[in-house]
């Protein structure tokens, strides 16, 4: 990468560090039975995404690009039309993506430092891991130093025009006990554990866990668990494998009506409407 590209990346990282609210809709979508999104464009958003284990195709400015099941990294600059027709090529197929509110005059955009589309990317797992961490930290909707650090890590790991191999980065600063608590919540979303149960599981006092959890996520464990349930509901509805009733049951709701009211309060749309046209792409 040239010195000018280095400066452009530094400029982008500095801008999002100063205004982390530029981060929009970080998400993880399980492909399930498939994703079909009509071609569309974002006027002022840069969209970055990694697809793992996906077959099918992307549409980019009317051009059809094949997805062959290998790891792919794509960058859709503002104004670039894009759409999807993806299906799983292997178990656990997923798309990890996010958007940044940018200006077309920024050096990172004018120079196009991120590769528009790379397939069969070597060593992409550190980037995928960083993306998953960023998605998890953003679940509660709060901007924390840990979330900003995760976003900058992702930008620095992202494949660029002349660097296809993604470097491995050692990242610390995330409390291992909080990570274990997050994993416990994710594994029991139908009945999220209470604070005391989580504290016993990770071996610290409830007060200490609550304090560390809030420092990293900006939310209490209970609020974060609710946000993770929303994220999981979106995943289940997007992948099309489950209907609304089955999604409600998978998340521990006693009735479809309770699930629908809960989902609508948090997402602003009914589960059925979201299933027909999911957001995030």
Structure, explained:
The protein is of the alpha+beta class and 281 residues long. The chain has two domains: 3-157, Jelly Rolls (Sandwich); 176-276, Homeodomain-like (Arc Repressor Mutant, subunit A), CATH 1.10.10.60. Helix content is 43%, strand content 21%. The protein contains eleven helices and nine strands. It has helices spanning 3-18, 107-110, 125-137, 145-157, 176-187, 195-202, 206-217, 221-239, 244-250, 256-267, 271-276; strands at residues 23-30, 35-40, 45-52, 54-60, 63-68, 72-76, 82-88, 94-101, 117-119. The strands form two sheets. The chain has a five-stranded antiparallel sheet with strand order 1-8-3-6-9. Strands 2-7-4-5 form a four-stranded antiparallel sheet, with no helix packed on it. A hairpin with a 2-residue loop joins β4 (54-60) and β5. The longest helix is centred in the last third of the chain and has 19 residues, at 221-239. The model is unreliable at 164-173 (pLDDT under 50).
CATH level 3 topology of the largest domain: Jelly Rolls
Shape: globular
What distance separates the N and C termini? 29 Å
The H-level CATH homologous superfamily of the largest domain, spelled out, is: Regulatory protein AraC
Order of helices and strands: HEEEEEEEEHEHHHHHHHHH
